[in-house]
Specification:
The chain has about 325 residues and is an alpha/beta fold. Helices cover about 45% and strands about 20% of the residues. It contains eleven helices and ten strands. The chain has a five-stranded mixed sheet with strand order 3-2-1-4-5, sandwiched between helices. Strands 8-7-6-9-10 form a five-stranded mixed sheet, sandwiched between helices. Helix 5 runs antiparallel to helix 8. The protein binds adenosine-5'-triphosphate, magnesium ion and fe (iii) ion (FE). Fe (iii) ion binds next to helix 4. It is found in: Cytoplasm.
Amino acid sequence: VTILGIETSCDETSAAVLVDGVDLRSHIISSQIKTHQKYGGVVPEIASREHSLHIQPVVEQTLAEAGVGFTDLTAIAVTYGPGLVGSLLVGVSGAKAMAYAAGIPLLGINHLEGHIYANFLEHHDIKFPLAALLVSGGHTHLILFEDHGKYRVLGYTRDDAAGEALDKVARALGLGYPGGPQIQNTSRGGNEQAFKFPRAMLEPGSLDFSFSGMKSAVLNTLNSARMKGETLNVPDLAASFQQAVVDVLVHKALTALEQTGVKTLLLAGGVAANRLLRETLDYELSQRKVRLVYPSPILCTDNGAMIATAGYYHFLEGDFAPWTLNAVPGLNLKSI
Ligand code: ATP
Ligand code: MG
Ligand code: FE
């Protein structure tokens, strides 16, 4: 089973060729970060134009590197949501045209499922049931998986996503876009106890998240210092905020594990690349004899390989998309 995976939901044009769900033959990620950096974030109109320019060369190069042609493919998997509508449309229309012309099936993939399935590409002995902590630029979800494709959302953010909060705080600190990696790097020279930022835990036992108030606490600290003409230590601010976000994510993940009793936790999404989050969960979960699984950093942020992997499992289920597949910008995780 040879699957071409295509991802264009935000600002990465990416494609991958994956054989039998485990053998990644080629993978290209064309990032638009440099283009959007000067605006301090992704500009949707520019993103879709860039995708239109890049999708064909990216797919051609991915197939060439894998040494396959369209006729060697079993199916084409594409992200159809959630994401920016103009960006999604480029991938969806491109994949439809290619699959139709090649006479092979189309697989419509939920981007959030894709993030989680990055784990199955690199780890082949993952056992169900399991919990997944999805922490990305637009989402923060705790999910219980009974089996492939069978899952239930246990909790999600009521306001900002974890990555979004990191990006906004980084921007306020003058650290640039994307903010998560900048916060991580700047934190290295800082004291995580210098500032006491709140940890929003919500009601006892709640598996929901709220990062907006925590973000505002940093912005308020910055503003009141500015009014007094004081300058604050940026590495201390970054380290203290990173610690606050990680504390909440770890606390909620541990609560979900206690409530469900599952013995495996998957980390997924761009923030899953965060070193403090990985190390803290590694330590806490080894104490509890729970297995922690996370993808390589490059497979945490948006990529085509994760879409090909999720596509492989959809293919096994015979879960094909109709030719009328459309972009669904607000697509969420369906629950069983
Ligand atoms: P979504 O997947 O929810 O639609 P997205 O695709 O924009 O949103 P991802 O690509 O999964 O999000 O992740 C990007 C986010 O990950 C950004 O918010 C970025 O700051 C964050 N991020 C990336 N690397 C790190 C890191 N090392 N530490 C913390 N955050 C990080
Ligand atoms: Mg991106
Ligand atoms: Fe993403």
